[in-house]
Structure formats: C-alpha cells, structure tokens
Amino acid sequence: MVTWFERTKPYEQALIDDLDQIIKIPSILDSKTISEQTPYGADMIRALSKMEAFARRDGFSYGRVNNQVTWIEYGPSQAEESIGILTHIDVVAAGDGWLRDAFKPEILNGLYFGRGAHDMKADLMSAYYALKYLKDNHIQVQRKIRLIIGTDEETGWRDLPQYFAAEGEPTMGFSPDGAFPVINGEKGFVTLRLRFASESAGTYRLKRFIAGDRANVVPGEARARVDVPDQDAFIHAYANYLKRYPFLRGKANKINQSSRVALTLFGQQAHGAYPEDGQNAGTYLANFLARFEFAGHAAQFLNFIGHQVHDDPFAVKIGLSYEDQVMGRLTLNVGEMRYSDHGQGAIVLNIRYPLGVTVDKIKKQVQISFGKRIPMLLTEESVSMLPHFVSETDELVGTLSLVYASQTGFYRRPQTSNGGSYARLLRRGVAFGGQFPDVPVSSHQANENTPVANLTKAMAIFAESLILLGNPKQNNQ
C-alpha cells in the first residue's frame, strides 16, 4: 500500500522551487510604499501576485479582495458549505543575528533557511501543494475549499475581516500557522501601550532608549544614550554586567568629548507568544541602567522594565500570574520600549491570557504596577482577541486528529496554544500544523528554518485532511 508520504514526496523539488520565489520577496509591512493599491506596501502585493501566478499556472480559480487577501479555490464553486485554509504571506523583519541573508533561501544539512520558513511561508506552500495534489489527481470534493492568503497577520489583522465581509465566512477551517496535532484552543491576547512624559533628572540622565518594533516579538536589540559623571567607570560596569550573562552581547562608546555614552545590547529575538524562549534585550539593558542614580521619569521607566517586568514571562512580579487547567499560564512580552528626554516615553506589552482572566483586570493591574507618580495614558491596541475554543467533539477536530494519528502513528490530544492564528476568526476554526512536535520553534528568530522533509509530510497531512473534510458523507461512513 502506497503511503501518503510516498504520494507527496515527488512534489518536493517543485514545492521548494516555488517556496524559494516566495521567500525571496521581503513581504514586510512597509510604510514607505503604502498606497490605495498597496495597503501594506509594494512587496506584499508582489507576494500575492506571485501566489496568483502559481494558481494561474496550475489552473485554479483565484481572486483578490481589496488588495489585501488572495484566495485560491478548488471544488464546486456553488457548494453551500466550504472549508477555509487560513494563511498569511507577511513576515516580520529579519532582525539581528542571521548567519546568512534572510531573503536568500538556502538548504543546509536538511534544513531550509529563510525568513518565513517557519512562520509561515513554508506551511502556506505545503497547503497550496495539498490543493495541487487534489487537482492533479482529479479528486472530487462536495465542499468548496479555499486557500485564503492574508497580508496583515503580523501587524493588525485588518485583512481577513474584509475578506469575510466580501466573500463570507467558511463553514469550518484550519490555519497551518501553529503546530501538529490540532490546536483547538488559543489564548486571548491584548496589547497595551503605556505613554508617559519623559524628562530626565538626577546624577545620571537618560537621553534616549529604544528597543523593539513589534508587540509580538521579543526584542533582540536595544540601544540607549546616557549622560554619566564618569564615562570610564560606567563603561567598565557595563562590561562586567555583560560578563555575568554570556548569552548577551553588547558594546559601549564614548560620544565625542561630552559626558555621554552610547550603549548597545543584543539579546535573543523570539516570538512574543513564547517570551520565555527569548532574551529581551530591552529589559536587560534597563536592568543594567536601573542600578544607577537616575531620577524622575527615567527612574520610573527603567525600574518598570528593568525590574518589574524583566525576566518574568509569566508576569508574577506585577501580580498577573494566572493558570487555567485547560489553557495554561498567562504570558507577558515587553515588545517595544521608547524614551526620549523631554519628549514622550512608551512601553508596549503583549499579554496572552487563558480563560478566567479579563482585559479589565489586566489593565488595572498594569496601571497599579507602573505606579501613579507619573501621569500615564494606557491604551488598548486595536488588535485584541478573546480566548478561542472548539470542542474535541466537533467534526473538524476529530477528522484532523484522525489524519495526524494515521499518518504519523501517534495520537495526541488537541492542545491549547499561546499563539494567535487566523483560525480564531472562524466559529469553527483550529490551528493545524505545520510545526511537528520534534522541531524547535524558530519563528520570528534569526536563522529561521524548517526541515525540508517536513514540507511534503505536512502536504500529505493537509491533502488527506482536505479530502475527508471536503466529503462529509464519506467522512461519516
């Protein structure tokens, strides 16, 4: 009997060739090229156009909504029920620490490297090739299947709501933007922005501090400029601090003949959904600076990020520690930190929370922890989601679990994730793949990669899943 993996393995080289073309397009939100025709930047449209070129080459029906979402369709177009495969083609910036060009894909020792190799261009192409397998083999389905490709997942989630308004919500679906087996629960998440005045005072003066540019990324680099009474002693103290933490790198430079010192610190970038996997450069730099005699707003800023939320991914020190039996622990990522003397300071917190916690409680506790000595404006960013859960008894969850078990030989119960996938936008939506359990998470990190062999393994799992979900009567026999 021919296995599913044997059926899809012959597609490997073609899949890689197409993936190469997508990886080479730096589809990052680009404010410089935003227009009505390019709402998230020119490269995002280039990436969607490339996927449409693949669809045209392979004979699929396809379309685009508001230059933000491309859909590729297989099956009866007039079917009352539909399956959605929810994906995104946007990626985060490359950041520091890459040993190779993030947008020149490369295979080394069986691993495929490039920005998007893990999140989520590789899984997008595995899902596309699963549809291609069905078409190449003339496999009939009763439900319409659409591969839905968004462009704003890493930033604002403004794209798919517009698609649903124009094209309707699929009956059910999955997003290959997580892990195998089935992720039937996703924590809620909220992003809070703290704004406050930033005027320095004291023996030491903080002139500038900057770390991070995305709420959902653990900052891998931080920079600061400070006025100090003794440059040499300060630089020596910084060198000693770095020696205490061998996983950090940094440098300090005197600025001209002034009393000012420029500091740079490199930590470990990671996905903000799993802040424990990274080393936050911003909070480490603040932790170093907080030991000196800063005063006023600078002292409050450095104390909060350098002590109260530093090295505490589960928010114990600010009183937000909480764990749900089904969904696990609340997590906290400090994604952005800004301070400009005689300007405005800002701190952006990304919090993933399980059932049993409310956004109001989170906001109240953050306000208390930051303190009331400095007037602060706390705002909730536009992208926030309540916890999402689909029952294990649902046809969608059962079918996907069955396919994963039959193809891998391992049954694993559905799980809950810290990450947020587009699946949560569907009433009946789950995350499913393409990260296998034995693969380290490298999304949003330097040298992002995925095993080459897993490209067609994921394709095989997606293909069989689509056949079963696409034929409900066959599925229920």
Give me the Rg, rounded: 24 Å
Structural category is alpha+beta
Number of helices: 12
CATH superfamily assignment of the largest domain?
Zn peptidases
What is the share of helical residues? 25-40%
CATH topology of the largest domain: Aminopeptidase
Biggest sheet descriptor: 9 strands, mixed
Residue stretches low in confidence (pLDDT < 50, at least 5 long) are: none
Count the E strands.
28
In short:
This protein has twelve helices and 28 strands.
Description:
By secondary structure, the chain is of the alpha+beta class. It folds into two domains: 4-185 and 387-475, Zn peptidases (Aminopeptidase), CATH 3.40.630.10; 189-380, Alpha-Beta Plaits (2-Layer Sandwich), CATH 3.30.70. It has helices spanning 4-8, 12-23, 42-58, 121-136, 160-167, 231-244, 281-289, 296-308, 359-370, 395-408, 453-470, 472-475; strands at 61-65, 69-74, 82-88, 106-108, 111-113, 144-150, 172-175, 178-179, 182-186, 188-198, 200-202, 205-211, 217-218, 221-227, 249-254, 260-266, 270-271, 294-295, 323-324, 328-329, 331-340, 343-353, 376-380, 388-389, 415-417, 429-432, 434-435, 449-451. Strands 1, 2, 3, 6, 7, 9, 24, 25 and 26 form a nine-stranded mixed β-sheet that branches. It has an eight-stranded antiparallel β-sheet with strand order 15-16-14-12-21-22-10-23, covered by helices on one side. Strands 4-5-28 form a three-stranded antiparallel β-sheet. The chain is elongated, with a radius of gyration of 24 Å. It starts with a helix and ends with a helix.
